Amino acid sequence: SSVPSGSRSSKTFKPKKNIPEGSHQYELLKHAEATLGSGNLRQAVMLPEGEDLNEWIAVNTVDFFNQINMLYGTITEFCTESSCPVMSAGPRYEYHWADGTNIKKPIKCSAPKYIDYLMTWVQDQLDDETLFPSKIGVPFPKNFMSVAKTILKRLFRVYAHIYHQHFDSVIRLQEEAHLNTSFKHFIFFVQEFNLIDRRELAPLQELIEKLGSKDR
């Protein structure tokens, strides 16, 4: 089916998560976008002077959720129960879903089902004002960092699945530059603040090294 490219890129998998305009987090997001525009991603991920680390991580986590949401939205028609009966990132890595509340024991499921669970779960965390306060002066909870790490670790798996199982579709759609830039930004960010365990990044280790070496 031929879809005009404009409509494709505007399709997200889940509704976009908006940061309220006029809020301090919105200012931070604008700052992030401006530094990204300069092209220096290593610099763009650094904590801006005088800013709160939790808030910086929160704003960027929302932004990565939106980016992955959009990237996955472009390939949902290729990621089906039959094409991807398991959630994997190449032959050596398979993911089973558990969220600790509704599904306590990890279940094996198809990639589209897994990603649906995952993105819904992330959305619920981002919408929870006690975890991601959007109002000025409301403190972040003590466990914020561990929640953010879990969210980012899981979002990484969507990139890993797209790269391993759907990269040919990404190329056909001419989305690879977009995907690579988004992933590079994500990796530099998690490296800067040490947010994802190296072991978890193993499925894309070669790509991560390649992206990093271009920037030294």
UniProtKB/TrEMBL annotation:
SMART domains: Mob1_phocein (SM01388)
Family annotation (Pfam families): Mob1_phocein
Annotated binding of Zn(2+), by residue: 79, 84, 161, 166
Superkingdom assignment: Eukaryota
Keyword Zinc in record: yes
Family matches, as SUPFAM superfamilies: Mob1/phocein
Coiled-coil intervals, chain numbering: none
Keyword annotations from UniProtKB, A to Z: Kinase, Metal-binding, Transferase, Zinc
Polar residues bias locations: 1-10
Region (Disordered): 1-20
Molecular function via GO: kinase activity
Record keyword Zinc present: yes
Xref: InterPro entries: MOB_kinase_act_fam, MOB_kinase_act_sf
PANTHER family registered for this protein in UniProt: MPS ONE BINDER KINASE ACTIVATOR-LIKE MOB
Protein name: MOB1A kinase
Gene encoding the protein: Mob1a
